Amino acid sequence: MSILVVQILNSLFYASVLFLIAAGLSLIFGVMRIVNLAHGSLFAVGAYIAAWLVGRAIAMGLPVVWLLLLMPVAALAVALLGIVIEPLLLRPFYRRAEEYQLLVTFGLLLILEDLMRLVWGGLPLTADTVMDAIPSVHIGALIYPGYNILVIGVGVAAAILLWVVIYGTKFGVLLRATSQDRRMAAALGLNVGLVYVAAFAVGCFMAGLGGAIVVPSHAAVLGMGIEALILAFVVVVVGGLGSLKGALVGALIVSFVRTAGIQFFPEIELAVLYLIAAFVLIIRPTGLFGTA
Amino acid sequence: MSLLRTVELRKRFGALNACDGVNFTVEKGEFLSLVGSNGAGKTTLVNLITAHLQPDSGQVLFEERDITGLSVSERIKAGIARSFQLVNLFDGLSVFDNVALAIFAREGKTAKIAALAANDDDVRRETREVLAEFGLAAKSELMAGELAQGERKLLDVAVAYALRPKLLFLDEPTSGVSSAEKAQIMDTVSSVVRSGAVTAVVIEHDMDVVFRYSDRIVMMHEGAFLADGPPDAIRANEAVASILLGAPSPA
Amino acid sequence: MKADAIALPRFHARLWPYVAAALGVAVLISVPNFAGLYQTQLLTYGLIMAIGALGFNLLLGYTGLLSFGHSAYFGLGAYTVAFLLQWLGIRSMELYILLGLPVVAIVSALFGYVCVRHTRIFFGILTLALSQVLYSLALKFFWVSGGTDGLRVKRPTLLAGMIDFAGSGGFSRFLVAYYYYVLGVFILSTAIIWVIVHSPFGKALQAIRDNETRARFLGLRVRRFRWAAFLLSGTFTGLAGILWAPLNGLTTPDVLYWPFSGEIVFMTLLGGFRNFFGPIVGGVAFTFIKTYAVASTEYWQLLLGTVLVVLVLLLPTGIVGVLVQVARRRVPMERS
Predict the structure, then answer these.
(1) For the complex shown, is ipTM > 0.90?
(2) Buried b / exposed e along C204-231 (16+ C-beta atoms within 10 A)
(3) Which residues of chain B are within 8 Å of residue C218 when distances are taken between CB atoms?
(4) pTM value surpassing 0.90
(5) Domain B4-90+163-245 grouped into CATH 3.40.50.300
(6) I need a surface site. Which of A20, A60, A108, C127 has the fewest CB within 10 A?
């Protein structure tokens, strides 16, 4: 029984991270109609920055509680990166064919992957201290990291916050208006360019936050972004591109399938995921809640 | 036997009744104009007949054969073709290839993968003939995207004509061009179509054009037929006049 | 005539490709005579990637579908060679091709059937997802596929076993002989794809690329054409994989991993995807660029990524596209 609870918690932990990445990807697509192939790499950048900040903070002797605050700081850094990337690399391509957008974000992926190697080297960067700092909980006879539960909390909070922002604030209205009809929004006087930058920054923030909160548990390694992107794709395919609910449901489905897969058929658990994505695309191309 | 007959054709878009029990007949050899204000249902009717849209109810009979269930390609094979209001060409292919492709498609030769298209003399000859008829022979090596607007409209018609249909629908073939060009285009189109014994239905807004070239004029209004007859009869029709000119019809 | 135009005898515009091809072949044939073994080997890789890119471009440039999953067919071709060697002891290059092509063709047909029901971004994502199914299978079933270590591929025999490369100096003899072999396959493949693209079928593909609605209103069965293009495209890219494995000596899951699909797209764009010869130039150029990048810096991905971004920003028509534009301005050409 305890094992079951642990597995469920593991799935929820994984789902939280996936949700953050996928929701960011979905938001960017929903508003800007761009599929950012470098999104996974931004997730990785978030992980590296967070791990690096934790390392510096510990060296400076900061109390452990402060370390947790570094997570959103890392996410913010990624958002700032996004604010630089959008006008430089994405804006020239909005009027161009979709192929070029994919290519330029692929180029960005290559650049980011090597920038991470340049700055932080080939060895994994850890932030275990943060994880150790949170007391463990007892589940039956088992001991479970309290940090994971914190991550689940962050995931839930993020989902709620996003929902509130998108459906309850003026900014959210701007986002939704622009995503539904860009030209109409512009005709109504909305500064579409600004909305785009903001949407991209938010999407990057979420990817970065995903990386930041996962790094105490899983060290930052080269190539983690490329793997993450594929999983994020599976999530948005299942849940529907452009849908917040879809990102949440998709993340949960993918997470639980993955956990079950690892448990019962470990060899092909990845393949099962991709097959599910392919299957969903075949019978319901827009995903469960997709709008595209 | 009428060439085309629709029976109680209906199509709604939400609250809009685009086709309200339309009974439309077209006789072989006619040059017919379909007129009416925007939203009257002309393009919807054509879309229903060419299988671009599916009707809510009703039938489409071609040569007294029920084609309501047939797909786009099946109707083309039966002999119905159309051109488009917003020019629909293959901009990455040459003018020559645009027409040639229609002929290849008609002849069922598009599955040929082991032979060069340039080697098919029959197709090339017919392509040259069609281009000459439409006055586009001099431009045949240009990319379709490089033509002027008037020429593009002509090419759009030529491509549909090259399918050698029995019934050809032309959706606003003179829209978007200058008045001088309009006459040129319609001269070419009507002479080619008549000499090729193709029955034509033209959706048109320019009433001068309509009166000058048509054998018969059908006017649609809010999804139904308002008037149907030769140009003289339509000219004398007061209901038509009030719709067209916005003047109150004499009681 | 512009002052800076070069005075040349007027050529029929239609003859240019054949002249260029003849010159190209002449140059390629003579390469081993003046280039070293290493350059020859590199060019062999380049020609292999050219075949892969030509196949890929059937789908992108001529049918208008961007696949991000072509690594599947390349990798499948490579692994088929490795399996044929390991399980059946086959050493003949001809058998690798004869037995490998049906395998990649069948999988292309299968994947293609599923993928062409969608367009644009969903098509791309679907091709990506399916290719990663193969990747994860190669990774996970390591007792079959060799996992990340891969499978060794020994030097094959060429021309129905008539030529083998045992004994001393075998490797250098192999490199030269294999260059000519690949060159032959390359010329044949190019000729076949040239005919395909200029056939009525090829014209229909381009029409569908330009205007799907109009193509439908010519009576063309759009989905069927796209599927056929997918099948052909995957098969030629698979052929590249088949040729690649014996030269590389090793088949690893890397060639199934999705960034490799990105490289295929990259090299096609580099050469120019709206021109027949673009993928050839791109395939060869990319091979050399990547090799030198990898050799000169640890951060070759950074280099390549920057090149890609600059390319897409400034030279969207690719190398050949630019050359064509330059040529059009400087040389007056008769249009027939």
Answers:
(1) no
(2) bbbbbbbbbebbbbbbbbbeebbbbbbb
(3) 76, 101-102, 105-106, 159, 163
(4) no
(5) yes
(6) A60
